[in-house]
Amino acid sequence: MQEHQQQQPKSPLPPRSPYQARARSTSDDWAERGAAVHVQREADANGNVQTKTIKKGVKDFTFGRILGEGSFSTVVAATDRQTLREYAIKILDKRHIIKEKKVKYVNIEKNTLNRLGDHPGIVRLYYTFQDERSLYFVLDLAPNGELFSVLKKLGTLNMECTQYYGAQLLDAVGYMHDHGVIHRDLKPENILLDENMRIKVTDFGTAKLLSMQKSVNGTTGASSDNISGIPIEDDRSNSFVGTAEYVPPELLTDKAAGRSSDIWAIGCILYQLLCGKPPFKASNEYQTFQKIIKLEYSFPALFSPVARDLVSHLLLTDPSKRLTIEQIKAHPFFADVEFGPALWSRKSPRLVPNSILAGVK
């Protein structure tokens, strides 16, 4: 994004955002044309329902610190000027995503988040709007960063913490699957922690949307709400996606991924939380893939037997033999967990490393 901006003539920055550099007339035009429109219904004192149209655009937010940067996007903290509520806003450079053929992933993320709606363990999309240079996704703010950062600091997590975060991840993934969404890139970097240290799964750019309903002519297909003004690309359902250490073997051998591919990733994450590293790790991607295909991994001698039993039933080469979401919930590893709403009101445990495996390689 910075490289792209250097190629453009700059005008004085308006105070509302460090990312807007343009003439006032053009900015005002886009403030209307690119704003998100939200219809809100409220009852007055007499019980009469009134409809109120709310528009949200760049001018309605005060932009703050940078939370993260990707290859074609920047995530910043922002405050709604009217409500003073804080959000994370993902800013995507239009020219760059078109040039690099990333439009498909932008649309996938928007459509997926719209389908998932509001779940405590999934980052929520509130508004999408645009100006002549950028697209904006207004998302939940997760002030405690990534679960990966916790692992980087502590090295490992003990059984209580692993059970807590594993249960929340399981609940969130189960909700995704029930709504026809396969994440396909689950990893600690894509698991954020909110103000209460509870998880929020993010980054749905490589997700797979499954058909949820039949159309009038009998064909099946998920709705695709394309972002205005940018042509959508052809989707390749079997294209390679994911991160090497968490990629399931079926994606490497059959070039296909299903719900059980997310189950494989959960197994990798549980192993990593307890051991401090993924089960399949080599000096390069090719060697990592070979380990995955051959199911070449091992448990440390002091690895919990109940955790070992669970992980070994998730990291299976045959996707059909992996445990289902409901079977995982019923596993002894989660014996003390009350799934459902109570899971999300439960106080998060104090972050403690897995001392049993401290120093074990």
Explain this structure to me?
The structure is a single chain. This protein is α+β, with helices and mostly antiparallel strands and 361 residues long. The chain folds into two domains: 54-141, Phosphorylase Kinase, domain 1 (2-Layer Sandwich); 147-217 and 238-357, Transferase(Phosphotransferase) domain 1 (Transferase(Phosphotransferase), domain 1, Orthogonal Bundle). The chain has twelve helices and eleven strands. The chain has helices at 2-6, 24-33, 94-99, 103-116, 147-154, 159-178, 249-253, 259-275, 285-293, 305-312, 325-329, 341-345; strands at 36-43, 49-56, 61-69, 73-80, 86-93, 125-130, 134-139, 181-182, 191-193, 199-201, 208-209. A five-stranded antiparallel sheet has the order 3-4-5-7-6. α8 (259-275) packs antiparallel against α10. 36% of the residues are buried. Mean pLDDT is 84; it is low at 1-27 and 214-238. This is Kinase-like domain-containing protein. It comes from Lipomyces orientalis.
